[in-house]
Amino acid sequence: MTSPYAPRGRDTGLPNELDAHFHLLDRQIIDAEDRMVAKVDDLELQERFDGFVVTAILTGPGALGPRLGGRLGEWMVATWKRLHHEADPRPGRIPIDTIAGVDSAVHVRSRRADLDVEGFERWADDRIVSRLPFVHGRGPQWSSGPPPEPAPASAAPRRLSTLIGQTVLGADGTALGRVSDVRLQRDPITDGYVVTELLVNANKVRSRFGYERPAAELPPAVRWLLRLAGSPAAGHLSWTEVERVDWDARQVHCRVAALQHF
Amino acid sequence: VKRYFGVMLGVLTAIGGFVDIGDLVTNAVVGSRFGLGLVWVVVLGVVGICVFAEMSGRIAAVSGRATFDLVRERLGPRIGLANLVASLGVTLLTFIAEIGGVALSLELATSVNSLLWIPVVGAVVWIVLWRAKFSWIENAFGLLGLTLLVFAVALWQLGPDWSDLFNDATRPNRPEGEGFPTYCFYAVALFGAAMTPYEVFFFSSGGVEERWTEKDIGTMRANVFIGFPLGGLLSIAIAACAAVVLMPVDISVDSLGQVGLPVGVALGKVGIAVMLIGFFAATFGAACETGLSAGYSIAQYFGWQWGKYVRPREAARFHLAILLSSILGVAVLLTTVDPVKVTEYSVVFSALALPLTYLPILVVANDPDYMGEHTNGRLANVLGSIYLVVILVAALAALPLMIATKAGQ
Predict the structure, then answer these.
(1) Which residues from chain B sit within 8 angstroms of residue A37, using beta carbons?
(2) How far apart are CA A215 and CA B142, in angstroms?
(3) CB 3.0–4.6 Å: which of B89, B153, B204, B329 could bond B66 by disulfide?
């Protein structure tokens, strides 16, 4: 597999293949005018007849809080809901077809002022920063356009972060490891991304550093540290081998007894 | 010609901007108690900050990503947040110490109590961060900070026995009456003073602010590999002055005035005047850098627009974070906490917080996806690996040593 994206300045547009966790999650989002928008706090997955597609990037405390987990995460979500002007707010949502390219950041086609994901920035500008002494220049022209289209209501969307970490069970019921990443393939017709593979790993520290990917070469001391952190990558699993995902029990049931190894 | 001027300006500001309140106080304290017996730590720390800053500067130039952006990307939101809390804590502690340092230098110059200066200094720092251009902040205080070279002049004027000094520096020797744990504690503190996390946040974010590209890697390296070591020499000169003047008469430094005493002894009033300008520039410049760094790290963790390269209203949350930091800094200082004490703690906590910032940079600097052909070479990786171990050891040792020695008493 060649590198799915090039460093800045050699914009390759949308790569055909992406590892959702490694290449998208926690990356900076940059808008059409080169302004920073937010971090990719989570991805929205929608179930289709043949599997899952990525429908949107989720941002903001409503998406980040659940990923932090624990008291702190609950507190973050609760505070965000309390401060939000809507009664039952949804996290900031950037539809997947707005993405123009992925390199060291995720680039979107829209201006950030039109994306409707920056409530706090608007509030900070409006209530505090624009009223400070010696302020000069205009702020961003926030659009007050129509509310964002609601997410398709066909089935409740899932979040990528809830798929990561699920236990993968083989055909005979033995645990094969945990989902460490989700490989996405670009769908040339819809321009969206389809889940094609699960990377299964015994160790989540390793996958953070991209250790199972051949492209990443690490200096000896880091490799040594990672070796202390746990056993190597287990392998991957094609989505066609997945029988069903039990979201409540956080288990992926698959039809095969063993994983494909790298 | 313009290019050479740019490189020279960068090097000069790197020298002048290298020394902050942490270096001033820690080097003088150590010099007055241990002579030059800990100079090897300054050398270790300066090489370390060179390795770290070069990697993060290169990443900023090639991928356009600043340090804390990558910290979250590689460590995930949870450990990233823990790191944010730790690093921000240290950065704010340093910010407080720098503002206090500015107020103390103003007190030395005017005899007006530093508590009266603190709100003024806090307000001026905020206005500079709010309105001044990034390059102006960096250049003005960096160049003015060069007046600290007066310490080197003072050392020369004091006419020490150079071979004695050299001996002390090259054959580390613990003076009688100082325990081994205390010696180690000050080693960690000096290391933390040289390798403060905010320096790297500021350096890499500055690279993004100034729109570095691959073409600027050469200039960036010149700044790092010439400017930082010369700044380190300045640190050593401060320690040496203290070792020559204060150590024989058993004065151990616990105020900013004592840091400058040797300059007064050697060069009289003019020396003191120049030195006070240096104190002011170094601490004020570093106050700006730490204040910005506090904003940078929060904004980069959450993905907010940050930076001085956009109009303030376009980076509202970033400027809000800076405003709140300034208010917090002034509020803490008005509790009459001693800025010199704050400094001593901040450098130790710096050593403690470093590994989680260093590791992601080392990993990303090796990732061809980000770096293309500019991944770490062999030398960078060997040094990078050695320093990973050194940084881990310093971090693990910091707290136990602090407790065991009652912070070096």
Answers:
(1) 303, 305
(2) 40
(3) B204
**Minimum Cα–Cα distance from B319: chain A residue:** A129
Between helix B134-145 and helix B197-209 the angle, nearest 10°, is 130
Contact call for A7 and B367, based on CB within 8 A:
no
Looking at per-residue confidence, does B369 or A68 come out higher? A68
Q: How many Cβ atoms from other residues are within 10 Å of residue B273's Cβ?
A: 15
How many Cβ atoms are within 10 Å of B222's Cβ, its own excluded?
16
A219: distance to nearest CA of chain B, Å? 6
pLDDT, tens digit, for every residue of B47-97?
Answer: 999 999 999 999 999 999 999 999 999 888 999 999 999 999 999 999 999
Q: Provide the Cα torsion B45, B51, B55, B60; round to 10°.
A: 50
Binary contact (A221, B389; C-beta < 8 A)? yes
Residue A240, CA distances (Å) to A52, A195, A197, A253, B359 in order: 11, 10, 8, 12, 37
**Is the CB of A221 less than 8 angstroms away from the CB of B64?**
no
CB A243 within 8 A of CB A254: yes
How buried is residue B359: exposed, middle or buried, by Cβ count under 10 Å (0-12/13-18/19+)? Answer: buried
Q: Edge-to-edge strands of the sheet including A106-108?
A: A36-39, A28-30, A106-108, A99-102
Which chain B positions have a beta carbon within 8 Å of A67's beta carbon?
77-78
B348 Cβ contact list (under 8 Å, min separation 6): B185, B188, B189, B192, B398, B402, B407
Q: Coil, helix or strand for A28?
A: strand
Judging contacts by C-beta atoms under 8 Å, the chain A residues touching residue B216 are: none
pLDDT at B182: 93
Sole residue written with tokens 């790197």: B14
**pTM for the predicted model, two decimal places:** 0.93
Nearest beta carbon to residue B72 from set A36, A39, A222: A39
Amino acid at B22: G
Q: Give residue for tokens 């380190």.
A: B232
Size of interface A-B (CB pairs under 8 A): 154
Please give the structure tokens belonging to residue B85: 């809390």
Taking contacts as CB-CB distances below 8 angstroms, the residues of chain A near B310 are 35
Chain A: give the shortest CA distance to residue B245, in Å.
43
Amino acid identity, residue B37?
A: G
Which residue out of B370, B379, B389, B396 would a mutagenesis test of the A interface target, given it has the greatest number of A Cβ atoms within 10 Å?
A: B370
CA closest to B313 among chain A residues: A139
Chain A closest CA to B322's CA: distance in Å? 11
Q: Which of B404, B241, B254, B247 is nearest to B344 (CA)?
A: B254
Q: Helix B228-245 to helix B150-158 angle, to the nearest 10 degrees?
A: 40
B369·A216 Cβ contact <8 A: yes
Residue A130 phi, psi (nearest 5): -70, -15
| More reliable by pLDDT, B265 or A138 | B265
- Secondary structure class of A95 (helix, strand, coil): strand
User: How long a stretch of residues is chain A?
Assistant: 262
Count of residues making up chain B: 409
Q: What is the pLDDT of residues A76-86, one digit of tens each?
A: 999 999 988 88
